[in-house]
Amino acid sequence: MFVVITLLIVLTIIIYINFIGKYNEKYWKKRGVKLYEDNKILGIYWKLLTKNRALFLQLSDIYKQYAGDPAVGVASLFTPTLYVIDPENVHHVMHTDFPAFNHRGFIVNEDDPLSDSILQMNGVRWKLMRQNMTPLFTSAKLKNMFYIIEKSSRDFVEYLKQNPDKLKGDTYNTLTIFCCKAIGATVFGIDTKPEIISPFFKAIRDSFRPSLWNSTRYTIMMASPRLFTLLRLKQLATFKTFFINAIKQILRRREQENSRKYDFADICVSIQQRGMMTDQDTGYELVPTDELLAAQGFFFFSAGVEPIATAIFSVLIQLGKHLDILQRVQLEIDEIYRKYDGQISYDAIIETEYLDKVINESLRLHTPINFIIRHCERESVLPVGNIKVEKGTKLYLPIRDFHLDPKYFPNPHTFDPERNLIQHGSETVYIPFGKGPRGCIGVRYARLQMKTALVHLLQHFNVKTITNEKQPSFICDIFQLRFKNIDVKLSARI
Ligand code: HEM
Ligand SMILES: *[C@@H]1O[C@H](CO)[C@@H](O)[C@H](O)[C@H]1NC(C)=O
Ligand SMILES: *[C@@H]1O[C@H](CO)[C@@H](O)[C@H](O)[C@H]1NC(C)=O
């Protein structure tokens, strides 16, 4: 009897799984789109969960295997999911028909206040929050806060000089600690000594540590949003008490001080003093509570740590391999130092054109965020292939795969700062910060922070890349690029 029941259950499961596969095949066939063969039930999530294989590597497999197709279906239980490959279609999703694709489709359950950030918000709430945070990132604001960015870079160099053991390796880790200090100072006015590993750093680092559970939770959110809501899964609940309390303290202290620091905390205080945030078009109102502002701060913090550290690290990797380029960068920096008498101002940073090219090319070759996600809010038709996209569809869009496509960038694995990166007009395929209304809000800050750190670092140090492998390998992660088996050594310039 027991054997029969077990057999029946197994049989039912097999038939059901088969059914999901057939359903997905049919669904995409009807729309003239191929389904990614590798797994017709869980697509790219299958190897993420069972083989610990980074999502972006699997998207790359698809990109190469279906190079001629405008978009490819990816199984995700019963949630229609599409990897959009044609640049015109990508532009349609990110820009032309923005109202249809203005979501990422992330879900924030109750009791998970830190996840309620611009990244994950939707609709009019997102628009309102984004509008209110945009003033933080204008050129004028960045100019005002440049003194903080500059000082943290100078302190970092000083710290490295006094701790020569930090020059020998584990440079990515050292850079993340530095970036955390820098963003903490610029965003919140938190001033810590470089050698102190702050509790903020611990929270940020732990929250984005890849793990099987994190991958599972992400898979559930993408493949079965309903189950994600039903199970009330939370993303950042562990850090809620610590971070919200810290923000509360910062804001209350700032309210009492009269001096302006031109940072995020200032903006928060003035938003709260104005009372309600109101959307002009719809009249929708949102209360800027400490919790809501803490969520924005938490995300700015995390976006400012690992992505920027990875971006700086990949520049150093390239310079440590191409000594001629390193010398040219250093020559440019030396000239700027001479011209400005060692006082590195905002204008001085803007003048480093060759370094800018080096950064741009490095962001192409190893972009910190590998792909983009959108969620369809109302039916739309992708122009190339005439593909009808239904409400509720999840879309993946390439960043890294565009950047490494020889069709757009000949010899894509060659590091060449003289490349013309922006050659495809509005359908540009060079998008390290995404594009359109949901593109990265922090792009100017990120570039300024990177450049300032690199100017100071390369003025004082030479770099050498150490690796045992021809091609870098990567740690399994969902969104971010994380290098494995590669390091950079610094040595004092004489
Ligand atoms: C090198 C560093 C960084 C890279 C490569 C990067 C890249 C990206 C990318 C690719 C997106 C998605 C864009 C899209 O969906 O079209 C994004 C979104 C975002 N980034 Fe960044 N980012 C960086 C640093 C930062 C920093 C420092 C901040 C804030 C202080 C920031 C804040 C945001 C926000 C708030 C969003 C969501 C925007 C929205 O949905 O409206 N990023 N970023
Ligand atoms: C991801 O997993 C690690 C290790 O299990 C955990 O510490 C971290 O909090 C998780 N990330 C999130 C966002 O919850
Ligand atoms: C680097 O890229 C940015 C953004 O794509 C662009 O505005 C800038 O002009 C580029 N810099 C150089 C020196 O080409």
TrEMBL record:
Q: Which GO terms describe its cellular component?
A: endoplasmic reticulum membrane
RNA-binding as a keyword? no
Keywords assigned: Endoplasmic reticulum, Heme, Iron, Membrane, Metal-binding, Microsome, Monooxygenase, Oxidoreductase, Transmembrane, Transmembrane helix
A Pfam family of the record is p450
Extract one GO molecular function annotation from the record: heme binding
Question: Which residue ranges does UniProt annotate as crossing the membrane?
Answer: 6-24
Q: Where does heme bind?
A: C440
**Is the Heme keyword given for this protein?**
yes
Show the InterPro entries listed in the entry.
Answer: Cyt_P450, Cyt_P450_CS, Cyt_P450_E_grp-I, Cyt_P450_sf, Insect_CytP450_Detox
UniProt-annotated location(s): Endoplasmic reticulum membrane; Microsome membrane
Q: Which reaction does it catalyse?
A: an organic molecule + reduced [NADPH--hemoprotein reductase] + O2 = an alcohol + oxidized [NADPH--hemoprotein reductase] + H2O + H(+)
**What cofactor does this one take?**
heme
Question: Recorded E.C. number(s)?
Answer: 1.14.14.1
Name the enzyme group at the top EC level.
oxidoreductase
Tell me what topology the record assigns in the membrane: Peripheral membrane protein
Q: Which family does it belong to?
A: Belongs to the cytochrome P450 family.
Q: What is this protein called?
A: unspecific monooxygenase
Which species expresses this protein natively?
Galleria mellonella
> Which taxonomic lineage does the organism of this UniProt entry have?
Eukaryota, Metazoa, Ecdysozoa, Arthropoda, Hexapoda
Gene encoding the protein: LOC113523082
